[in-house]
Amino acid sequence: MTQGSPIRLLLTFSFPLLIGNLFQQFYNMADTIIVGRTLGVNALAAVGATGSIMFLVLGFAQGLAGGLAVITAQRFGAQDAAGVRRSFTSSILLSAGFTLLLTAVSLLAARPLLEGMNTPADIIDDAYRYLSVIFTGIFASLFFNLLSSVIRALGDSRTPLLFLIIASVCNVVLDIVFIVNFGMGVAGAAWATVIAQVLSGLLCLLYIFRRFAILRLHREDWAWRGRFAWEHLRIATPMAFQFCIIAVGSIVVQGVLNGFGSTTVAAFTAASKIDQLATQPLASIGVAIATFSAQNYGAGKYRRIRDGVRKSTLLSLAFSLAGAGLVIGLGHPLVRLFVGEADPAVFTQAQTYLNLVSVFYFLLGCVFVYRNTIQGMGRAMVPMVAGVFELVMRVAAALVLARFIGYAGVCLASPLAWLGSCALIVPTYLATLRRLLPREETSSGEGTADEK
Hints:
It is found in: Cell membrane. It comes from Bittarella massiliensis. This is MATE family efflux transporter. Its main location: membrane. Keywords: Cell membrane, Membrane, Transmembrane, Transmembrane helix, Transport. By secondary structure, the chain is mainly α. The protein has one domain. The protein has helices at residues 6-39, 41-49, 51-77, 81-116, 124-136, 138-153, 158-181, 186-211, 226-258, 262-278, 280-298, 302-339, 344-358, 361-376, 381-405, 407-411, 413-444. Helix 1 (6-39) runs parallel beside helix 12 (302-339), helix 3 packs antiparallel against helix 4 (81-116) and helix 11 runs parallel beside helix 14 (361-376). The longest helix is centred in the C-terminal third of the chain and has 38 residues, at 302-339.
């Protein structure tokens, strides 16, 4: 990532990520499609009602894993082999501790959270069954996310794609077997997801040991280094809590949404899955620029970071327009994949969500690009504060706009949250770059043509 054309590197790196993210979305999409088509709209609503709570916990795990790998990428960019190995072991030890804590807390809090969100009585039991299994398998989520993040930190985004494809196929097969053949209901869909994640994590582990000599660990690499561990936590915990802050806003939104009834929850769930699928190119660019900025920051090539960000922003604009056209034009048939021939109100409300949200996709693209760039440069606190901005805007939309314009106000919560985040992270990125560029000029003069 520190040499060659930034646009070519970003596209080459992000394309496998895009395919991988799409297949990762198929984990949840397979659950919701099979649940909705075989168990009915209420079961679909039950799975959908768990989304914000799942994001609270699993988002924390994902943010933690991504944050721990930032130091690994920086050490790799600085060509510090010993630092890469010690970063890897520190990440493993920290992840193990957080796994135990997250599992215990989430299992205890699942039912009270569902009740506090006013989950409709006709779906709360199924929602709790689904969450209980997913939270039992937190270790699988953190296991895969950590190892895949480390592989990407070393510049390989293709191999995790292959493992995700294998796991996604496994997930779909197990969904059908557990739900249709074994009659396990929504819990079967959750078990299918956990087992598939375990499989993908094991494949990552085997690949790391066979492919990356730099990660062949020695006994001394496992020595606990408190200051080095804190360096990881300084970046990883704000990134993890950033997801939690966003998730709290989603929980508030879900609580307001639940008041509209099971039909609206099902419509919102189906539309959200389509929305997540359409925005995966934006997320992929964000992950690519995080690795790009981390490695170039470690190498002291700040002008390459600026160039990469500019090109990533243009790519995000193009993908935003394409995604909006897709969901607005094909919303109705896409929703039918989830619910079949359901109540017409489901289709109407799902399309309302897609129409209102998709025109603001470029804001989300900017959030991914600038937030991940800042994180790659080691400034993890700013994205967390930006998450607070998102929380305030999201909650305000859910509580205030929903009161005046109803369901449309709930739909506008996400675009307003993206706007709040951009208001902080874009100026912060520009200020950080202005401070860093003179350092590169001092150390390297005018730089190479490639760096420019």
